[in-house]
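hey m, so remember when u said the tokens were messed up on ur end? i reran from scratch. heres the input so u can diff it against urs
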Amino acid sequence: MSNITLTSKQRAFLRSKANGLDPIFHVGKSSLTPEMTEGIAEALEKRELIKVGILKNCFDDPKELASIIAERTGSVVVCVMGKKITLFKQKKKDSAFVLPKAKVKE
């Protein structure tokens, strides 16, 4: 499971960055295969922020698929809009994304 939790401000920031992205993976009637999960994990390592599309012939719930993918890849679900899932996994070094700071509660 991912050890990062996003604030609403961070989610909004990442959603805005993902706005112009097209899905690079499409989940179809065979649902989520181990090969696809591995490919998504590799893409997250390189790109940090990706979209996954759910095709019409996939009968799985997009929100359930999003949480399964996030758990298996160590990423976090930014949002699920209709049949598109946006995922984020920040690199430990040289990240292209500087997230807005979360406010510390006193």
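this time it looks ok to me. The two ends are 27 Å apart (CA to CA). if urs says something different then somethings off w ur setup not the seq
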